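Researcher: Hi, I'm a grad student and pretty new to this. My advisor asked me to get structures for two proteins we've been looking at. I'm not sure of the right format, so I'll just paste the first sequence and hope you can take it from there.
Model: That works fine. Here's the first sequence with its structure tokens right after it:
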Amino acid sequence: MASQITPTGTDVLLVIDVQNDFCKGGTLEVPRGDDVVGVINELSSRFQHVVVTQDWHPNDHTSFATQHAGAEPFQMIDVDYGEQLLWPDHCIQHSPGADFHDKLKVANCELIIRKGYRRTIDSYSAFFENDRKTPTGLTGYLRERGLTRLFVTGLATDFCVRFSAVDGRAQGFDVVLLEDACRGIDNNGSMAEAMREMADVGVVSADSSKVA
């Protein structure tokens, strides 16, 4: 990759789940999650196109440990579409925790993709629910508008960012992971696994300072 990248009209900044519950004091706090906000704000002014995702769960979502007797967060269970990691209750629709971080400033955002609102299907990726077949509509939106390269940022690197980046590549887009604009949870080595998988499918890693 060139030493400097100048975003063009076919590039999009993809901002994943910068919401209160994933930031300091949230129910599913990502360590140093708040650190991405200023970086993303600065980046957003360099892009013509910005798309934001928002976790948007009903209060009885099947991915919540509280919905399974005797279960604990970060325990794995089997569901209809395969294995599912259980989480603390988070990003419940219309709750303060589901709101975007109050210092996130992406006034040029053109689209908000809400995900995880189906009670029985979790959703990490900006492109597909966790059953891996229910689309969010993002692929069609990007293709319809002629957007071909994604610069991915947000929370958390090893889950929603990872799945979004990998699916972006699978859908035929060029994908750049801006590492300093992301933070991870790192559950049982999930960060190292995520970085390996993204590299294996052709996601390019860079620092936001490379974006002119």
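Researcher: Oh nice, that was easy. Here's the second one.
Model: And its structure:
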Amino acid sequence: MLITRAMPCLLLKDGALVKTVKFKDPAYIGDPINAIRIYNRKEVDELIFLDITATQEKRKPPFKVLSEIASECFMPVAYGGGIRDLADIKTVFTLGIEKVALNSYAVENPRFVREAADRFGSQSIVVSIDVKKTRAGRHEVYTNGGRTATGLDPVAFAAEMERSGAGELLLTSIDRDGTQEGYDIPLIKSVTGAVGVPVIACGGAGTVEDFGAAVSEGGASACAAGSMVVYYGRNRAVLINFPTRQDLDRVFGTQGART
């Protein structure tokens, strides 16, 4: 039976955990290893780590940090940020990370997605698609940490990435990031209706019911959350947390049940 997954999406900056709002103003959360130990106890399905400054600073992934992360995690881990060649992907996998997420470089060089999928297998290649609404209300793909407009339609780009060999898509609404106002369901639905690979909904989760809506209304195969799983309350006090398996099963139904 297919399991509907739920996972924290954690942001790295200079080796520390941070959280943004609409991809801006990263606030310090804490040490990633401490967070991992809590998520291990809570038995989350997967973890996603994204280095939010690697591409902007034109540097390679933080291999030392990733080695420490992989050695602590009991669950599969995906990493994105600064990956621009096959050698870097190989190094990341050698450290114990199971998946890589390609974002800006997938737009710059779509053939790289095919090369990576052919070399390492589609199941290990995620394409991360960051999307913002234009003033006209049209969804557009952005790169470079939400700084660069590409003019690309996310639905068409998602379909191209599937054809290029991506085994999974991480779809993030920049406008909803950190707001905890719920996912952009129309965006999710438009992409899931155009591709056959799993889509991870990201950006806007505030309650476990938002997870359910992303799956039942948007057609997502998985849900990722940031603020919801590192903050507590209106004052956004730092508290590493995650919904219980019972709550997830309630909103996901039988699809969320472990087998």
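Researcher: Is there anything I should tell my advisor about the second?
Model: You could mention this: The longest helix spans residues 32-42.
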